[in-house]
Design a protein that fits this description.
Length: 110
């Protein structure tokens, strides 16, 4: 029970950090309204209002892997889904199996 409480707090902190980071990097495309991280399932869910879209869009990283190389930690995005078929296809094509270095502030939460 304590471990699930700690994991929930950690996942919430990761979600807040990720939401702020994505809004800073992708703000020209819209706004991330909600972000949820499940480190046990290696899953991230986003709800966004994209420019040009009348309704909110949901997207998920259905699976990611974490890799460590020395003192650096990386995330490898594996599988995606979304409420728009075209968006799922774009995410799969351009981001599947890509590796991204995680900021040290994030790695401290993992």
């Amino acid at each position: 029970m304590l471990s699930s409480l700690v994991r929930g707090a950690k996942d919430g902190a990761l979600a807040l950090s990720m939401k702020a980071f994505l809004n800073e990097k992708l703000g020209m495309y819209g706004e991330i309204l909600e972000c949820a991280v499940d480190t046990k399932a290696n899953r991230v869910m986003l709800k966004a209002h994209l420019k040009g879209e009348a309704h909110t869009v949901t997207a998920a990283i259905e699976r990611y892997d974490l890799e460590r190389e020395g003192t650096d930690q990386y995330i490898v995005l594996k599988q995606f889904s979304s409420s728009r078929e075209w968006l799922t296809l774009v995410l799969q094509r351009f981001f599947s199996d890509k590796r991204y270095k995680l900021p040290s502030a994030v790695t401290k939460l993992l």
